[in-house]
Amino acid sequence: MNDQSPSRRSGGRSARREARSTKLADHLRPIRAGMEGGKYKPLSDIDVEKIHQAALTALETIGLADAPPSGVEILTGAGAILGDDGRIRFPRALVEDSLAKANREVTLFSRDGKNDLDLTGQRVHYGTAGAAVHLVNVEGNEYRESTLQDLHDAARICDVLDNINFVQRPMVARDILDTMEGELNAIYACTSGTTKHVGISFSEASIVPHAVEMLHQIAGGKDKWLERPFMSNSNCFVVPPMKFATESCEVMEACIAGGIPVLLLSAGMAGATAPSTIAGAITQACAECLAGLVYVNAIAPGHPAIFGTWPFGLDLRTGAMTVGSGEQALLSAGCAQMHAFYGVPGGAAGGATDSKMPDMQAGWEQMCSNVMGGLAGLNMVYEAAGMHSSLLGFCHESLILSDDLIGQAMRCVRGIEVSDETLALDQMAQVCMGGPGHYLGTEQTLGRMQADHVYPSHGDRTSPKEWVELGKPVLIEKAKAKKEEILATRSAARFDADLDREIRERFKIHLPV
Amino acid sequence: MNDQSPSRRSGGRSARREARSTKLADHLRPIRAGMEGGKYKPLSDIDVEKIHQAALTALETIGLADAPPSGVEILTGAGAILGDDGRIRFPRALVEDSLAKANREVTLFSRDGKNDLDLTGQRVHYGTAGAAVHLVNVEGNEYRESTLQDLHDAARICDVLDNINFVQRPMVARDILDTMEGELNAIYACTSGTTKHVGISFSEASIVPHAVEMLHQIAGGKDKWLERPFMSNSNCFVVPPMKFATESCEVMEACIAGGIPVLLLSAGMAGATAPSTIAGAITQACAECLAGLVYVNAIAPGHPAIFGTWPFGLDLRTGAMTVGSGEQALLSAGCAQMHAFYGVPGGAAGGATDSKMPDMQAGWEQMCSNVMGGLAGLNMVYEAAGMHSSLLGFCHESLILSDDLIGQAMRCVRGIEVSDETLALDQMAQVCMGGPGHYLGTEQTLGRMQADHVYPSHGDRTSPKEWVELGKPVLIEKAKAKKEEILATRSAARFDADLDREIRERFKIHLPV
Prior knowledge:
Keywords (chains A, B): Methyltransferase, Transferase
EC number (chains A, B): 2.1.1.-
Shape of chain A: globular
CATH class of one domain in chain A: Alpha Beta
Helix content of chain A: 40-55%
Pfam family, one (chains A, B): MTTB
Largest interface: A-B, 130 and 130 residues
Oligomer: homodimer
Family (chains A, B): Belongs to the trimethylamine methyltransferase family.
Radius of gyration of chain A: 24 Å
CATH architecture of one domain in chain A: Alpha-Beta Barrel
Number of helices of chain A: 19
Strand content of chain A: 5-15%
GO molecular function, one term (chains A, B): methyltransferase activity
């Protein structure tokens, strides 16, 4: 096609389609990681204060059991009180002091510097997380055990999806039986699949020094690692209600020693391990994470830590976990508001579904908590993509479709710009009085085409007639094709050959070269 | 099963399942029509004021063209100014006066009194609407022309779905060629299918007196109709940008004469018939609806009118309408805030999707605008259920699934209750210190089981194992079965035989007796 072709003229339909089919430069994208949320406030200011006071009271009067000996020493050294009942209680002043010491300017780094996550204010980021034990095989309509390759593939897919901002390990490699091997391979599988920030979870402190060694290799030295730690550890440091997870606390200490940012994860289930009320579950999660913040800052003031209040829902009829409900969306949105109140970087779960397959239920459940979490200003929306079956299954096709879903949620977070230009009174006057009587094709309209509007990659906007002409495309089939396309392409995140050899010499890597 | 059976004991799993399988009495339901939204505010107070001022300026300086002669008389009589260019302009004081006169206490009545819609404050209601020309035949994976029977079936389905609060005619009967016959039959099809509030749309003023006659028959007399008008008219009284729809204004006048509440519907498309910016599209819609409010209140001060700012989105690449986007959700949520500012009952579109079938895209798009509309406090969320293909297709199965989807959105609107009881400090202390270490089965937990939690009717919460044991149920199949069950049951909304005969004697009704 030459430049004189009429369809290349500015404003032509095919020119517009073409303009959109080339990927936009990052600074031109209408949405990006880290847009500010917070326009949705599920709690009043008084409610927030009540929850905070209740959390302080819980810490002061109930406290937490089961700290490891090291933790007892650290916490009592900081001013906490060990009771005869073995519970550690936290004076209010200690908590307030720790909050004052806590790092409020956390950046979670990417490996290539292009996807750093600035967690200040109410900036919103979406990513994967979890520990699913199944891979959802859409093709075969079945759940099967998840493997290391599945995890690596998930990281590779995330790497090319614009709206997945970080990759916390969403499933476990059930084909590796040895715990240490499994966790070290998980680091390899994630970091060799994506240059975005990666999250992992260690189950034993003894693994951490080995992991740190691998991180130094990947970073190109200890200094480089410490300068831009591109991996954080998801630390289930409590066993709700109000007990420290002894081993996980030791892991946390080891992570801090190794310069690994920590996610202080309190995953209570409302009605089982947390109160059944939304307010109660949020209160307990806040109390637990405040205890974690005291712990971290007593060891290393200002160590990057994410306030991970992750209360989950429960189907009270069956006692089964449920993550796709409206109650879940409220739990996470309410937590986001508490994070903003504390002024610390925070995260919670959003975007997971109870559905087994990427169907209509998955769509509505994933959107509900994703968009509400974003509007509430959640810094880190974990489990935002691909997570099915109440966290038991991870689905690559669903992950791909979530890029559209989350893109839409991000558009909502971006919100409504009101200015003289956007109020458009001048346009209205021109168009109505002596003008064409419509806004189609005006300079102002075309100027907004890319700047303001998010277009789905797989979502369908055809008319019924076009849909028939296209052979009635099926959403899931489009996602499958995309998955195959991504996985057939050589990943840009791959380690170079020398580094890869070096890692494989030191560690037993289960993925093929 | 006798009462001594262990599984009947309080707290037993099957007892709890059983408790939930019986339908809850209305006052015990955790969600209901008319819960207050408004915790999500996409616009700042200053933004709201700017939009209002811009709308006033547009009315004052641009005005609206194409009023019918009667409208010119009515509006200039009230203080509007007819310009040499044929446009009617509205002094600011006239608009403010009309706002002061407008009815702020509108109730949209149901036929049986059980589903009246109180539109004061930011009470939220969800229902159908639209003028789809296709029925989405899920079974056949096809779109076909919609019929009167399809419309009647939709009304019957809505009648038994708890979370569909009103039934505005969602599709047109393409099997009736005569306009008047079609519209009169649409009233019959809707009102004989549901006792909930019904909405309709007349295309010619001459039809209205006949419709009123039918409404008097159904109500049991003119007085009874005027006492509780159970049907409103959706009045596309403007052709955006800023032109009156001449014939529709005449329809509106006739409706007011007949005591029919009106929905002042301004359905601009951002980028085509409204500015491409969200703020601009909201501004123009507000200006147009304010003109409508002046019109209505100049004829009959206090006549029930709904401020129907319905700006829609456009895919600026193709010029095609799109209703499922994040931009759409922001348009409608922003409008909700303007309605609250004006203090008048308002409505906008939410819950429609661009997808052809009830798939994952349909789920995420329908949830996005439904939940954001609700959280923003939209009194009437129109098009909330069953609407596909950018308003071109209506789907019964999707409508059924929307009952779960909207139920979840309503749970979010209900929000988080914070009180000493819900903060649950006492429970936390009991459970943690000397208690069982969990909240399962406590009195407080069980007490919340029905009071707080919304359980999906069709949404799946099984584990992968249970899912396999159940034969891997498919969501859409469940909806299909439910549809068949509903339509095989004799409708409680059916007219009694005498009334039905009376109506059929007077009107040519196309539905079989």
